[in-house]
Every structure is written in C-alpha cells, then in structure tokens.
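Problem: given the chain below (597 residues), write out its structure.
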Amino acid sequence: MAAAEAGGTGLTDLPGELLELILCCGVLSAADIGRVSCTCRRLREACQARGKVWRERFRLRWPSLLKYYSQTDNVNWLKEYKARHNAGLETQRIVASFSKRFFSEHVPCDGFSDIETLGCPGHFFEDELMSILNMEGRKCLTWKYYAKKILYFLRQQNILKNLKAYLERPGDQLSFLEGAVLIDQYCNPLSDICLTSVQAQVDDITDKVRKALRTRNPRHPSLAPKAGEVLIVPDVEFQRQVLDAVNCVLYEQLKYKGNEMDYYNSLNSYIHQVLIRRTGIPISLSVLYLTIARQLGVRLEPVNFPSHFLLRWCQGKEGSTDIFDYMYIDAFGKGKQLTVKECEYLIGHHVTEEFYGVVTSKEVLQRMVGNLLNLGKRESTDQSYQLLRDSLDLYLAMYPDNVQHLMLQARLYFHLGIWPEKVLDILQHVQVLDPSQHGAVGYLVQHTLEHIERRKEEVGPEVKHRSDEKHKDICFSIGLVMKHKRYGYNCVIYGWDPTCMMGQEWIRNMNVHSLPHGPHQPFYNVLVEDGSCRYAAQENLEYNLEPNEIPHPDIGRYFSEFTGTHYLANAELEMRYPEDLELTCAAVQKIYSTVKE
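Solution.
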C-alpha cells in the first residue's frame, strides 16, 4: 500500500504472468504461498488450488510424482500437496514405530497390516520411503533399515499381483520378455527395473540387427514391415539371414557371451543384468535371442532341454512334430545351430524326444524360477536366505498347491525362526493337499507350537550394565569397529556376554577350548563386513585403527549413525546396554588420541 501511495508498483499491480513467475520461484515455501493467498483477492486468484503456482510447488517438492498426472488433467494441486505432505508424516510415523515394535524379532507377516490400510495413494507412501532411503550422510540408519523393509514388501506385493494377472492371460498373449522382467523385479524390488526400459534396450539391439541385415540384403522382408501386422518371414533362407545378423550383432559386435566363469551367479538370471553385463546363462540369453528374432519375423520356440536351455528353428513344415525337422539354437554358445545328435553331445547323454518339444511361457518362467531356487539353496553368506525366500514366493504364485515347495517354505521359515503362525497355515494347507505328509507335518507343527509358547513366556530384554561385578572383564563396548586378529575381517560389536553363552556342541565345533582363555572370557556379537553375523572371543578382537563403515544389511537394525570412527546405538539397543555409549566414546577418544601421538 505504501508503494502504491508513493506512486510505485505493488505486487498486485504486476502482470499475471510475472506474478506467477515470482510466486513459482523456489525461494518461497508452501507456507509462504498459503499466507500470500490470504492477503487479497488478486493474490488468492493467482494462488488458486488448480493453478500453476501450486503445481510448481508440488513439482519442486516431489518431482518424481508428476509422472502420475496427465497434462490434460484438471488437478487440484493444493489438495494433492496436502495429501502428499500428510502421507509423508504418516509414513515417518510408521517407519519410526517399526524399530520399537520389531527390534527383537523379524517383522511378522501381519506387521505390514497398517500400511495396507493407509488412506493415501500408494505412490505417495513409496515416494516418502524413497526420500528416507536417499537421505545423505551416515545418519538415520535405523529409519533407512525399516524403510527399505517396508518398500521391499510393498513392491513385491504389487509385482505378485502383476505376475498373477500375467499368468491369467491367454498363452499366445504372453511375452517371454515380460515374464523375465517380472521375475527380475520381484527378486530386485528396490532396483529401477521396468518392462518399458528393458524393451527399449532390446529394441535398440534389434535396430542394430536391422542395419546389419540391410548391408547384406537391402530388400529383406524384415526391413519393410507393414503397419499393424505381425511380422512373419516365411522363407527359411530369409530366416537364416536374420539369424546370421543376430549372431553377428549380439556376439561379435556387442560381445554377449555365456558366463562360463561365474555360471552360478544369480545376476545371470536377471534380464536387466544380462543387458548391462552382456552375459548370462542359457535360459536368460535364450529369452533375449528369441525376443529379437521374433521382432524380425523369425518365430523361434523355447525348448526345455535338460541342463541346457535351447531354442528351436523349424526347417520343415510349420508345426511339425518331427524333432529332425528343426535346428536347435544355443544362445549360450554364441547362437550355434545344432542337430539332434549335436544336442546330445552338448549334455553328454541321450534324451527322449519329449525333451525337444516346445514349452509354454509359464514353463519357461518355472525353469527360470527353478534356477533361482537352486541358487538360493546354495547360498552361504546370506543368512536370511532372501533369494530362496523370493524364488519360493514366485514358484508358489505359479503353483500354489505344490506340496514339495510348500514344505520347503515351511521348513525354511521354521529354520529361520520367523513367522510361526504362517508356518502353521502352510502346514495345514499341506495336510489337506496330501495327508501322507502327516509325519513331517506333525513334527513341524509340534515344534512350531513350542516356539510360539516360548515366545509368549519370554520376559523383556535383558539389560546389561557394565558396572555389574560379573561384567568386569568386558573390554570392548557396543558400536566399536573391530578387527579379528586371526581372520582379519572388520566388524562392529552389537552385543556381548561375560562368558561364552553357546552350547557345548557349538563350543566343540568351533574349537573354543584351544583358545588360551577358552570359553571363560567375554564373547561379542559382531556384524561382519561380508554380511555375516559372528560370535567372537575377546582375545581374538582388536581395535580397528582405520575404521570404515561396515556394509552389513542389518546395520540399521542396531545403529542409528556412523560417526566416522564408531557407530551410535539406536534407542532400542541402547536400552539393553545403557552404559556402553559413554564407554564407547571414551574408548574412541583414547584410541585415536594415541594414534595421533
């Protein structure tokens, strides 16, 4: 007003576009916009709920969410802003509660029930979880730990729904590539994997093949597909030219190859990793090869050959049942074309005709998941058996009544000591499907019920005070980064006992009595840099004078921050070791002041 009386120009006197530009600048907060809109009618109209100002405010705060809106939508941006803001607060509340609720156990099956009943759009909730995971620095480790678990669960639930919808479609509408992407997504739910991106990469390879084909035969029918028609190249010679071009581009130009050196690496089974690393196993390379060939009009078919997945290419009448009317393509072996006899040489033994037959998309997925199941059983470093759990979920989504895999899932959960109520549900289902399993089912039911009863009888966590006389020999404290004297691994302490608390069998197997102080010395629970959890004797540990972060998946379960020299226990761990924080800080100060001297 003063500016107007003095003959100057006030904010409300500016042209509408200039006013919007000022209000859209990143300097003003949402609260500022709200206050501005309350000053007069002109500014209220400039800041209308469906206008550019609130849309820009939404975009600046949550840019990744704009993909969920169309340019033509008449969106109430103020309402969306408030909904996203409230979803963020609710997400933070839930994440913060998880540590208190589930510190002493794995998150149970029903632990995510309050998430599933949230009254906000799922993508708002996911976006806030990603914001937590992307927080910079070494703080908020516990929030990140539980945000990751929640996001893992949410995405896997959505992917399972997509997989079931995929399997319900008619067989001729199922894309082998889409199935491979769904498996990849489920096993890697925190990675940015989408069918559109994978298809674009495959299309890029297909374009390279077209260019190679054009140099060999400019009039090839694959180069001039008619719009809206499915491309089919009927002539065998034209098909051969396509396959030769595929081999040239895929194996000679792009250097794709079968991963013989690291065959049992799970990355070989994930299609997005095959495209990144340009290597894989027979079935993953076959899906890529088949997809490219079909896009160029050559209808290759998948063959569930034992020990080595193959593709077949018809040389005779289409649909022939004679196995000798086909050449068999080894995508793992640089696209080599094999006869029936050469296929047997490949695996070293004779097989019956049924193994040369074509298989469905669902059977291809079953074999891909079966490969992951076998890899999951081989795991040694991942004590959570995450790959085995994920591949079992996928297999049972396809075959929910498979007794063998239901029993494996029940035994796995029982072994890990998690989700006893779900174990009982699985066993009940198995008993209905196959009463002959009553012996194995009865054994697991009995021990699972005992586990549930023990859990009910458990009192609160033991609180360990360093000042107690029985703890006088404890030299190290929670959060210190240590080094094992004998094995050289780096680790961080997350628990301790005044003496070895393991049973006699463990003590005997680990040869503890060979130590100078044997089991009658403090032992420490440590998280190791290789992802394992170990129980180490005090005499085998020493301070790490060059401490780094320990890349362990459970680090956030116990610690809230890495300071650069040590870890700070989160509230739940600190309650169990209330005197350790002060001792840890004192120890660190003493260690590094000595090092500097």
